[in-house]
Amino acid sequence: MLRGKEVSAGIASRLKAAVETLRFVPKLVFIRVGDDPASSAYVRSKQRLAERIGLLSEVLTLPSETSREQLSRYIHSLNEDAEVDGILIQLPLPSHLESGSLLAMIDPAKDVDGLHPMNVGLLWSGRWGLVPATPAGLIAILDHYQLPIEGRRVVIIGRSNLVGKPAAALFLRRDATVSIAHSRTQRLDAVVRQAEILISAVGKSHLITPEMVQPHAIVLDVGFSRKEGHIVGDVHPRVAEVADYLTPMPGGTGPVTVAMVIQNTIEAAKHRRGERG
Amino acid sequence: MLRGKEVSAGIASRLKAAVETLRFVPKLVFIRVGDDPASSAYVRSKQRLAERIGLLSEVLTLPSETSREQLSRYIHSLNEDAEVDGILIQLPLPSHLESGSLLAMIDPAKDVDGLHPMNVGLLWSGRWGLVPATPAGLIAILDHYQLPIEGRRVVIIGRSNLVGKPAAALFLRRDATVSIAHSRTQRLDAVVRQAEILISAVGKSHLITPEMVQPHAIVLDVGFSRKEGHIVGDVHPRVAEVADYLTPMPGGTGPVTVAMVIQNTIEAAKHRRGERG
After folding, report:
1. Which of A48, A68, A215, A242 has the highest local Cβ count within 10 Å?
2. Does residue B39 belong to the interface with chain A, where contact is any CB pair within 8 Å?
3. What is the CATH number assigned to the segment(s) A133-253?
4. What is the CB neighbour count within 10 angstroms for residue A259?
């Protein structure tokens, strides 16, 4: 089992020590529109960790009927605020707000979700930028357990902007051979079977069954859905019988994502305030 | 055989007709530093096609000892020039000029090579932007011959910013299952064999032999190298005995790349001058 909480705790204590050496307190601002309970729980967990590590954080909660113009004014004022190091728009937004163009309004230097096109482009160009937290967390988990990535066949299921595509960039940068599968993939089981490292980020409960998985594979479960009131991953728990390593759900990739958001905020702060690591 | 010249001619006549309906003449400026003969031949072939299609073009030829500061001044003045629609820095640059940061100085709206991080990020975010010509040309070839992409297994060998990575984005957008292999890939032959559509963009003569290729595959050869004075592709000509479709080298993907640069210039011009098609 790849214990996300253990990895996250390790990162958190390293970050806490790093923050103590800074001459300023990094500040992270969350923008939350509407009152989706899952979103608000998720923001709370990020805020709790931010506080434990020694960051300032703030949540800007806006009513679900907030207009695009109002939201863009908030973003611009946070861009201008020299004390704000990270801006995070909690997704999903209500359907009348198109997220792509709003994310592109965030100053790329404060875009701790790494979703601004400029950061996406820097990532794919092999240059420095802020990287989405969930895929960065996957790398952190493997590195924590000293599982080599170089030369391994990595199969990523899902091609979202948040997970699948940036994960492809990061694993490619680490010299893996990367395949990206998705809803239009034919014979998914044959593709999955090639994976030495399998990443599932779909949100379909128990999509991945033991028969599909190569013996000794490493399986990272990112997707989740609700089933009879429980949170269930993309990966069937019995995959543990075939795989050498597996992240549990919950308690696997999720806690590491939260830690990487805080790490991004500290990175962004150092970079923007000119104390680059 | 997938005849690039035929595809290119089709695109060129469509573009010529499109340019005639415009109220302005799109202008493309090439920046060439140093006197690499291959580069200068390549710029000439692009200029010739630009002229035939009805574009204005100009070549700014700079001595190989040009400094970064001088080059950046040229880029900025072309950015400011309202008559210039496309700016193309011919690569490779002399070794003292770091291309990544110079490409990022081009106004993204004039970046007809699609290498500015902003355009790279828009591509990977599924939004409108200028797309690198070579991978766009690969899609154009398959579309010309009405070869379906959706759901096919595409293997791309090479992970350059110019070809491999943007090709992955474009084929993913067209619903292919995409794998990216490279110099650190283990058992390349097994990976290549899974390809229904194989793209080789490495520059290693005859890297791909008939034994590696799946029967009935479609093979697009982008890489080239010089061998005994001849231009030789990544793909051994005998692959034609196994594959259903193959691009020749030369005369395959190259001519289509040139046409796509011109198409990008027209797109950029319409977009920037507010006559979006």
Report:
1. A242
2. no
3. 3.40.50.720
4. 26
